[in-house]
Amino acid sequence: MTEITRDLISDVEQFYFREARMLDNREFQQWLRLVTTDVEYRVPVRYIPQPDPKKKETEAFLGVEQELSQGLEPDFRKENFFILSLRAMRAFKLNSWTDNPPARTRRFISNVEVLPTDQEGCYEAYSNTMIYYSRHQKDNHTFTAQRKDLLRLEKGELKIAKREVIIDWNIITGPSLSIFY
Amino acid sequence: MPMDLPLSQLVSDDGSHVHRKIFTDPALYELEKQHIFSKTWIYMGHESQIPKVGDFITSFIAETPVIVSRAGDKEIYVTINSCSHRGVPVCRADQGNTRRFICPYHNWTFNNKGDLVSIPQERKVCNKPEKAELGLKRVPRVETYRGLIYACMDENVEPLTDYLGGMAWYLDCFFDRFDGGIEVIGSPHKWTINCNWKLPVENHLGDIGHGPYLHGSILQGTPQVQELEDTGLNVVPKPGHGLSVRLMPEGTPDEMCMFGMDGVAGMDPEVNQYLRESHKKVTERLGEVRSRLKPLCYSVFPNLSFLWPNMTLRTSHPRGPGQIEYWSWFVIEKNAPEHIKEKLKIHYTMMFGPGGLLEGEDAEAWSQQFSGSNIDYADDRTYYYGLGLGEEESHPEIPGKVGSCFNEHYAREFYLQWRQRLEQGIQETSKLEIK
Fold it and tell me: B-chain residues within 8 Å CB-CB of A170?
């Protein structure tokens, strides 16, 4: 198990801040270099289940997991490197009407927590993201989500091998969940 | 009339001109709720979502919240989600299984049929309330077609199969295609779009014309687009309903007729194999003509749509004239292998649903169209729906009126149906007032 040092935590934070700056600057092609080619990128649905009486009085009663799509249930997004690339590349086409004109975004990353895993050079990392999203003249929205990442060191550089984005909406009231979180 | 224009000026007699106000006017929206959503069959969900006794989902008829539940007698009941006592919703979940719906305010308790079973406070009063009269309000008509659950607030509505008419022949192409039937997996994806509810429906009725342009960054120059131009037809099986299909010529090899699956998913060898296998039984189940039919998109009046290639059912729930709550489900052959379900599920979410690449572009167009419809100064410029006017005719092989893939008769018939139902509703209401 890899030891979690203050340097490592600082590296992960800097990695996330750099990632956020890239995405806000619309450098999506460069962003693709921050993910592994076997990346698993997932945005589950956050639905409202009927409370389970068997779980009452326990923390499982309010467990977030039971609100998320699982198994064969369709997530909002479940993507590999190919689909992420398609999104990244498409934004730069003249006739990509959801990106032209592009959204103005500002990402705020906080609550970074780095945890060890069994695999050498792999870390689990939690972070919160708040994304201010503004499109056209005044189509303004704020997305918030928790990110659960698996980060992997490849040739000494941190990369995202897995990302799960737990959004905080039941009904999506923003114009699109197509952005990179 | 709350509007200063008669309905005949909002939709021209041939349907080729549609006034901008029909997408924006609040008074018209009230009439739509009264004379369309309260009078026609509205899609609630699929039977596979509530297979067991006690299963329920929540849904809407326009803005009216309902509970759709499977009661002890195995029947489906649709009840208004509002307590008879003080109006509080008795169900707060999207889906689940329960024996009782309990109002949080005073604990009035209802069973899955909506019958009131207990009032805690009645133990201290002498005049016992008549519980049989205090159940949740029930939507009087519930019927299913091939697992599609429909409800109607009008007790005297025609049977669902009559309402669907010739659309049933086309619905069967998917909903009766497989021996084990189809299933809806998971709770619906839900998101709001700032557009009028009719626009997404119109799009799925047969708007092939937008594909290579609005979706140009993905679809332009693909073989699917060419195939649509070569073999695509817009069909109106009954005024109000509509669909787009590709009818492949006789003798077309099976691999060109499979399932109507397009693009990336069909390129996957495992999916391709599945489609080939599944196609073998189609002629037997649906006949030779439908084995060459590759449907693309459907809409059933007023607000259900189905997008075949990405296997998604969707409803456009109005929230005023300028907003919808769009709900979208993934549907698939029930007996398909798990790895195929997994792959096709990703094919759905990659393109459709709130994070879908194509869906985002559609939502963009629909919401921008709403802005355009609000320009009062342009009210004298009606929207033109005249492409292919009068060119649609009956077809030797498939039912309904059939036009070329860019013929807009699907929209003309939809808006004429809309106008006719409002005119009829207004007329009936005024008769009631005179009495």
Answer: 94, 190
